[in-house]
Amino acid sequence: MSMIGEYLRVTAAELDRAVQDHDWALDFVEEVQDAEDEAEPAPAEARHFSTYKAWDLLRFLLARADFPVNVVHGEEPFAEDEDWGYGPPRYLRPERVRIAAQELRTTPYDQLISGVDSADLTRAEVYPLGWEESGVLEWGRHWYGGLTQFFEAAAAADDAMLVWLD
Question: Which phi and psi (to 5°) does residue 160 adopt?
Fold first, then answer.
């Protein structure tokens, strides 16, 4: 079983409802995921986005860069007694999504990986392990680009974000 980074864009009203009604939130997540699994929208048009197994690589790289928003795990807890795969979900308010989108847009992936090698990832036990191959840092570029587009679209719509590991 894999650990997968998951995101759902939500309006302010949907965020309020999710925080108040955790069962509704999980049902809503599954409904959007099911609908988009078939349609496969581009990150800028999607309501759901996944960084798949790259979530921990992105966490490691963003932490090294002192990124101001926790885009990998979210910042504010809700449904704390529930497990959405690997722990409870968290969320980012619209103002934090806007800050994250701006920072993602102005932080190129090449800057994030500058000075990092596979040994750094292995020492830090970055999931999913197996960082010995050459060029492994390039694997995260695609996911970082998609995450950037997803956050930019969410910020433009003034959306909040649900975040969890599944």
Answer: -95, 180
Q: Based on the number of CB atoms within 10 Å of its own CB, is 43 exposed (0-12), middle (13-18) or buried (19 or more)?
A: buried
With beta carbons less than 8 A apart as the criterion, state whether 160 and 91 touch.
Answer: yes
- Residue 139 corresponds to which tokens in the numbers above? 């694997």
**Distance between CA atoms of 9 and 157, rounded to whole angstroms?**
9
- Rounded Cα distance, 9 and 70, in Å: 15
- As a whole number, mean pLDDT of residues 32-36 equals 96
| pLDDT greater than 80 at residue 45 | yes
Peptide bond just before 128 cis, omega within 30 deg: yes
Question: CB–CB of 6/164 below 8 Å?
Answer: yes
Query: Is the whole-model pTM more than 0.85?
Result: yes
CA gap 160, 166 in Å, rounded:
19
